Amino acid sequence: MAAVLTTTLLLLSHGISATTNDHSERAHGFCKQLDIPVSATSDSAIYDIPRVNNDIDAISWAIWSDTWSRVKGPQTVVKNTTTSGTFNIHAQLCVPKASDQKKNILQIATHGVHYDSRYWDPELNREEQSYVEASLRAGYSILTYDRLGVGQSDIPDAYEVVQAPLELEILRQLTLMARNGDLYNFAAKANPATAAFDKIEKPSKLVHVGHSFGSFLTSAFIAKHSSLSDGAIITGFLLTEYLGKPGMSSFNAEYAAPSFDRPSGYIVCQKSGIQTIFFAGDPNTAFTKEMLDYGDKIKQPVPIGEFASAYHIIGLTGPDFAGPIQYMLPEFDFYICYGDCKGIYDIEHLEKTYPKAAGKIEVAIQPNTGHAFTLHNNATAGYQVTFDFLAKHGL
Ligand SMILES: *[C@@H]1O[C@H](CO)[C@@H](O)[C@H](O)[C@H]1NC(C)=O
Ligand SMILES: *[C@@H]1O[C@H](CO)[C@@H](O)[C@H](O)[C@H]1NC(C)=O
């Protein structure tokens, strides 16, 4: 801190604007790293699932999960429990430089499995790839966070703590903090001091954005907590017969502990698994080798209890949600659409899922792109399709 101050003073004394030393400054906004204590209580369970303590266990677990005759969902519950705690959730809040009305709209983006919040904000060619940067350019504020068990957030027990209902509750708590102004107050006080965060009004509208497992959560969130969201962008997720068809074995998982600071039950994709799940389209034009390398570099382990509990957040109907919903699907998403998202969606079915949103639901297909939308060429053009959709609906 003292060093930062000294540098700032030096810069000032040389007549250079203090902002040149502001690490939070981006091309189109300002970002702050936050460690937010989030208190949450939710239903949980002890599931009948294998233990993963080495690489052989990791592949065995995947085959065990994919075996067609294995019982899944509620039947795997051995005991119902409750989980309660205060968890450190690492987040990044960014606010745009432009001061149009969109500044009062906050997007809350939830990443999927195998990644952390950097998925939304790749450092690799940010101007072209980062959804955060694109949002700032379009005038939105945006909160990204590492889900529980991922990145710089708390890393609790993989079997009994990191489960879907608790993660949904954490998203609800973050949303409540954003709505009542606590989030922006917290950001204003967090170091380093950045003038851009000092006098921002709390957001008047919230848009929830998800990718993959983060879209499971976002879909469940608007279904269960309809009044807390004004619009949703669901990327890399659609509930069809093809969802998850490639199976857990497509991850080419190994035990996370040798390469990451993780306990029992955390698995991580090998690079081949990262390509299988996340990269698709014409290999000459859809993505570059650098994007695949980067996608492998920022991968994150996954706690297996998250998969066992995922059924809680899939397929919920939202009779009360009345905001606009855009499904943004990569054309060649392998994990979600078994390689081709075109023609497998049914607007009528989506309107039955969210009846009050009928007429405000759109499915968009991003050409020549795989599941990791942000790490493919032409991502920026896809983001614009989303921003145009939001603008059309007053967001
Ligand atoms: C757990 O709770 C669910 C929902 O309340 C119930 O249907 C199920 O029977 C319970 N399972 C056990 C093992 O107690
Ligand atoms: C890039 O994305 C936009 C928006 O989805 C699309 O209209 C355009 O055809 C894409 N370009 C290519 C070369 O795929």
Q: What would you note in describing this structure?
A:
With 395 residues, the chain is α/β, with parallel strands linked by helices. It has one domain: Alpha/Beta hydrolase fold, catalytic domain (Rossmann fold). The strands form two sheets. An eight-stranded mixed sheet has the order 1-2-4-3-5-6-10-11, with helices on both faces. Strands 7-8-9 form a three-stranded antiparallel sheet. α5 packs across α7 and α8 packs across α9. Bound molecules: 2-acetamido-2-deoxy-beta-D-glucopyranose (2 copies). The site of one 2-acetamido-2-deoxy-beta-D-glucopyranose (NAG) has 3 residues, from β2.
In short:
This protein is 30% helix and 21% strand. It has helices spanning 2-13, 55-66, 126-129, 131-137, 164-180, 182-189, 213-224, 271-278, 289-297, 304-308, 334-337, 347-353, 379-392; strands spanning 29-47, 77-96, 105-110, 141-145, 205-211, 231-235, 253-255, 266-269, 302-303, 325-330, 361-366.
Q: How large a portion of the residues is in β-strands, by DSSP E?
A: 15-25%
Task: Please report the total strand number as a whole number.
Answer: 11
List the ligand species.
2-acetamido-2-deoxy-beta-D-glucopyranose
Considering DSSP H and I runs of 4 or more, what fraction of the residues is helical? 25-40%
Domain count: 1
The CA-CA distance between the termini, in Å, is 38 Å
User: In the CATH classification, which architecture applies?
Assistant: 3-Layer(aba) Sandwich
| Order of adjacent strands in the largest pleated sheet | 1-2-4-3-5-6-10-11
Major beta sheet summary: 8 strands, mixed
Content-based structural category: alpha/beta
Gyration radius, to the nearest Å?
A: 21 Å
Q: How much is the average pLDDT?
A: 94
Number of helices: 13
Poorly predicted sequence stretches spanning 5 or more consecutive residues: 1-21
